[in-house]
């Protein structure tokens, strides 16, 4: 393909926890996508300028790993990132861009069609973390990794990532995983900064380890197995914990809706990415019933069961 597409991603479980070595589960989301293209127009000018700055960053820091001269030349010739992935919504807009740049300009590209080992996946994650640090100050590399590989990934720890199969979706299932649009973008760096400030408190570190990570890991185990009753029992605890301890990260417009889900046991919300704005994730065993409580918001189903 001349312009390979790179899709958005959704981190179903593991936001913030993976920084502290919890499990994570991430899936591609093909509704949004981006590709590198050549055609300088007034609409593409800002993307082209962003790429110029990014090419400079790679040139100054990673010229041994990337064909940065070719990258810089392509930007001069009008290259931009044509993407409908919303920025600041927690679905991997910078991850898809980083994956596209790696794919086109890496000097020693790791072939994902070949027999991928855990070591190769870990190597890719490390490279992507360094590349994406330009956008967020600090990056785990997970977002570009999922955008690049375009298959579900199970994160056992920061050094142990593997592909994973998910239960087959049911098109007409009552249950659903869905996105809710908060109506405004969020910024990753300030949210991550809040998290690191919280980590300085011994009480927060303790509850993160003993409660949040425990519920998070249980949700992943049950979701992958398709065991929905224990999944939702743990989702209720996870959503309640986040409501208490991640309140600054919950978009203001969704605070009441978040609590309503917990109070009615109709649906449970959790962060999608770093929070502060963008999307949040919803889980329900009865999507039509959940929608009655969420009629003031735009919801988007990503998985039915």
UniProtKB/TrEMBL annotation:
<dbReference type="InterPro" id="IPR020568">
    <property type="entry name" value="Ribosomal_Su5_D2-typ_SF"/>
</dbReference>
<keyword id="KW-0963">Cytoplasm</keyword>
<dbReference type="GO" id="GO:0005829">
    <property type="term" value="C:cytosol"/>
</dbReference>
<comment type="pathway">
    <text>Isoprenoid biosynthesis; isopentenyl diphosphate biosynthesis via mevalonate pathway; isopentenyl diphosphate from (R)-mevalonate: step 1/3.</text>
</comment>
<keyword id="KW-0547">Nucleotide-binding</keyword>
<protein>
    <submittedName>
        <fullName>Mevalonate kinase</fullName>
    </submittedName>
</protein>
<dbReference type="GO" id="GO:0004496">
    <property type="term" value="F:mevalonate kinase activity"/>
</dbReference>
<dbReference type="InterPro" id="IPR006205">
    <property type="entry name" value="Mev_gal_kin"/>
</dbReference>
<feature type="domain" description="GHMP kinase N-terminal">
    <location>
        <begin position="76"/>
        <end position="149"/>
    </location>
</feature>
<dbReference type="InterPro" id="IPR014721">
    <property type="entry name" value="Ribsml_uS5_D2-typ_fold_subgr"/>
</dbReference>
<keyword id="KW-0418">Kinase</keyword>
<dbReference type="Pfam" id="PF00288">
    <property type="entry name" value="GHMP_kinases_N"/>
</dbReference>
<keyword id="KW-0444">Lipid biosynthesis</keyword>
<keyword id="KW-0067">ATP-binding</keyword>
<keyword id="KW-0443">Lipid metabolism</keyword>
<dbReference type="GO" id="GO:0005524">
    <property type="term" value="F:ATP binding"/>
</dbReference>
<keyword id="KW-0460">Magnesium</keyword>
<keyword id="KW-0808">Transferase</keyword>
<dbReference type="InterPro" id="IPR001174">
    <property type="entry name" value="HddA/FKP"/>
</dbReference>
<dbReference type="GO" id="GO:0019287">
    <property type="term" value="P:isopentenyl diphosphate biosynthetic process, mevalonate pathway"/>
</dbReference>
<dbReference type="InterPro" id="IPR036554">
    <property type="entry name" value="GHMP_kinase_C_sf"/>
</dbReference>
<dbReference type="InterPro" id="IPR006204">
    <property type="entry name" value="GHMP_kinase_N_dom"/>
</dbReference>
